[in-house]
Design brief:
With about 400 residues, the chain is mainly α. It is about 80% helix and about 0% strand. It is a multi-pass membrane protein.
C-alpha cells in the first residue's frame, strides 16, 4: 500500500464528506426557511439525488478518460466554488430559489464524480490484499462525517448565520483539493480505447460476477426503500412500537453505527470465512434488520436493528472490493457509474411499492416481504459468487 497516498485520500474523503453533510443539511434548512418551503424542500431533496441516477454513466466516462486524481481535485474545487457563491449570495440577501436548486444539483453531480474517482483510483494506491480494509476505512469516514458530523455541524452553523455552513463547507473542500492532488497512484490503468457510452453497462451484462453484484445491490436497495417507507409510521407513536421521535432518531443512529462497525470488521471476517461467505452472510444481516420492527419493545428493536446492520453493512465494502478486483482498471469509472445509476433507480420504485404494500397489507407485510426477498438472494450469490469464481474473475483481469 502507498501509505502516504492512502492517508491523504482518507483525510480528503473525511473533509469532503463533512463538507457534503454540512451543505446538504444547510440547503434543506435554507429551503425550509423560504416562502413556499414545502415544495422547495422536496425540490432540494430531488435535486440532490437526481445526479446519482442520471449522470453516473457519463461521469464514469469522464473519470476513465483523464487522470483520476485530477478528477478528484476538480470535483472538490468545483464544489468549493459553488458553495462559496451560495454563501456569498446569502450574505448579500440575494439567493433565489432557482439558484439554490441549481447549486444543489451541480454539487450533487460533482459528488458523483468525486466518489466515482475515489473508487477508481484506490486500486492504484492500495495492493489487492489491502483493498477490503481500505474500503472499510473509507466507508466509515464517509458514514461518520456525512451522516453524523456534517448535519450536526450544519445545524449549529446555520443558527449563527445562514451563509456560514456554505463558507465552512467550501473551506473544507479547498483543503481536500490540496490532499487530492498529492494522491499519486503507484500503478496506473493499462491504456484503453476512448470511453464509450454504455461500456459500463455492457461490462456488467456480460460478466456473471458483476451482473450478480448489481442485481443483488439493486434488489436490496429496492427492499430497503420499501422498508423505510413503512418503518416511520410503524415505529413512531401512535404506531405499534410507540417510539418517541427522539427514540426513533437514536434507533437510526444505532443502525448507522452498526453499519460503520460492520465496515471496519469486513476485512477480518473475510480473512476468517472468505469473501463469498461474507457476501451471502450480509443477506442474513439485512433480513434481521428488516424483521426487527416486528419484535415487541423498542430497545429490543434497536438492538436487533443494530446487530443486523453490522452484517448488512459489510455488503457495500465487500461488493466494492470485488468490483475493484474483477474489473479492468481502465473501465473502473464506467462500471462504477453504471452500477450507481442502476442501483439508485431502484429507490423510487421501492418507495412506491412499500407505500402500496403498506396500504394493502400493513407494514408487517412489507417487513416480511423485504426479509424474504433478501434471504432468497443468497441463492444467486452462492451460485455465481463462489470463491472459485471470484478468483477466476480476478485472474482474467490480471492476465488480460
Amino acid at each position: 500500500m502507498a501509505e502516504g497516498s492512502f492517508r491523504r485520500l482518507l483525510a480528503a474523503t473525511a473533509l469532503s464528506d463533512t463538507a457534503q453533510g454540512v451543505f446538504t443539511m444547510a440547503s434543506v434548512l435554507t429551503a425550509a426557511g423560504a416562502a413556499g418551503s414545502a415544495w422547495l424542500v422536496a425540490a432540494v431533496t430531488a435535486a440532490a439525488t437526481l445526479p446519482w441516477l442520471v449522470l453516473g454513466i457519463p461521469i464514469g466516462m469522464v473519470v476513465d478518460s483523464v487522470s483520476r486524481r485530477w478528477t478528484l481535485a476538480a470535483a472538490s474545487l468545483g464544489r468549493a466554488a459553488l458553495m462559496l457563491l451560495l454563501g456569498w449570495l446569502l450574505l448579500a440577501g440575494n439567493a433565489p430559489a432557482w439558484l439554490l436548486l441549481a447549486a444543489v444539483f451541480l454539487v450533487g453531480a460533482l459528488q458523483v464524480m468525486l466518489e466515482t474517482s475515489a473508487e477508481a483510483v484506490l486500486p492504484g494506491i492500495v495492493e489487492r490484499t489491502g483493498l477490503t480494509r481500505a474500503n472499510g476505512q473509507l466507508a466509515v469516514a464517509t458514514r461518520v462525517t456525512n451522516q453524523f458530523v456534517g448535519p450536526a455541524a450544519a445545524g449549529v452553523l446555520f443558527g449563527l448565520s445562514a451563509a456560514l455552513p456554505y463558507l465552512i463547507s467550501a473551506a473544507a473542500c479547498l483543503v481536500a483539493v490540496v490532499l487530492q492532488v498529492a494522491v499519486v497512484p503507484t500503478r496506473t490503468a493499462a491504456p484503453g480505447g476512448p470511453a464509450r457510452f454504455g461500456a459500463g453497462i455492457r461490462a456488467i451484462a456480460r460478466d456473471p460476477v458483476l451482473r450478480t453484484l448489481v442485481t443483488v445491490s439493486g434488489v436490496t436497495t429496492l427492499a430497503n426503500a420499501a422498508f423505510l417507507t413503512a418503518l416511520v409510521p410503524y415505529a413512531v407513536a401512535p404506531g405499534p412500537l410507540m417510539l418517541s421521535s427522539a427514540a426513533y432518531g437514536v434507533t437510526v443512529s444505532v443502525i448507522g453505527v452498526g453499519a460503520a462497525v460492520g465496515s471496519l470488521l469486513t476485512a477480518r471476517l473475510a480473512a476468517l470465512v472468505g469473501r463469498a461467505r461474507v457476501l451471502w452472510l450480509s443477506r442474513v444481516g439485512w433480513a434481521l434488520l428488516f424483521t426487527s420492527p416486528l419484535v415487541t419493545g423498542g430497545w429490543v428493536f434497536m438492538l436487533l436493528a443494530g446487530a443486523g446492520s453490522i452484517l448488512g453493512g459489510m455488503w457495500a465494502v465487500m461488493a466494492l472490493t470485488v468490483r475493484q478486483t474483477t474489473v479492468p482498471r481502465e473501465l473502473l469509472g464506467q462500471v462504477a457509474g453504471a452500477t450507481r445509476s442502476l442501483t439508485y433507480g431502484a429507490t423510487p420504485i421501492g418507495a412506491a411499492l412499500g407505500g402500496a404494500l403498506t396500504a394493502a397489507g400493513g407494514a408487517s407485510s412489507v417487513f416480511l416481504s423485504a426479509a424474504a426477498i433478501t434471504l432468497l438472494l443468497i441463492v444467486p450469490l452462492r451460485r455465481s459468487l463462489s470463491e472459485r469464481r471470484l478468483r477466476a474473475a480476478e485472474d482474467r483481469v490480471s492476465t488480460g
